[in-house]
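[job 4471] stage=fold_predict status=RUNNING
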Amino acid sequence: MSAKPERLFPASVRTVGLTSPASLPDAARIAEARRYLEDVCGVQTVLAPGALKHGPMKYCCGTPESRLADFHALLNDPRVDLILCTRGGFGSAHILPKLDFDLLRERNLPVYGYSDISALHLAMLAEHAGIPVCAPMADGLPDAMAWSAARASFGTVLKRTVPRKLKLIPVGESTADSTISGPLVLSNLTVMTTLCGTPWMPDLNGTILALEDVHEEVRVLDRHLTHLIQAGIIEQTRAVVFGYFTKCGPKPQIRRLLRDFAAQTGKPVCTGLAFGHEHPKCSYRLGEPAIIIPVKPAKA
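[job 4471] inference complete, writing structure tokens
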């Protein structure tokens, strides 16, 4: 007797559409993800026509036009209840100027992804279109779901009706012992910096801003954080929390950078959010209410 599928998604999600708004994914890993979604999760999958096609620029899947057409094809497919991006990399920003936000607003579909998909998520938030969800992507999905915390949040993120409680570690002296609440907005740090000054940067007034990054030197992280400060982005927020900084340089230097950031901004700053390019990759809906509960770091 075959095992009963593990229903990770709400019952309303019967078909998941896969698309590649950014870089080209590995075809074998996408096939593995589709098997996982269909055999383990019990949903059907639809692959956008150009999701596995090479383009003229090796760092992107297809062309901006083909990636936009793929996204619109899934929006126009009445079977599709949720869009799962295949991977990050670069390219999501290319499709923003001509993306049909009215159609996305009408369909109100969840769009899952992280990393470069942050550009799409922030634009969705700015346009009040669809449901942006920071979550594991198709490339590597079975690996991500091997972690119980990631699997649990992947399945419940669309079902949550109460504020998310985040037990996080305060940085420096900036965070009081009291809790902090606000809507949660998550982004890759580099991607958010590139959206400053564009129509796709949402209003972050009163939010808890969560940031992560990968493969960036500490001085580059410093440059991006300085830019967000000087652009007035950090001033809008109630608090800033950090996820994983994966392969970004010596950990002591990163800790010093975050302490300096907390001292300079005077904002409550915390670390320890399970978010970014390491495991477990937990899932969060952008704009969902959250409460920061400061905790002491575990002793080594």
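[job 4471] summary: The CA atoms of residues 45 and 199 lie 32 Å apart.
[job 4471] exit 0
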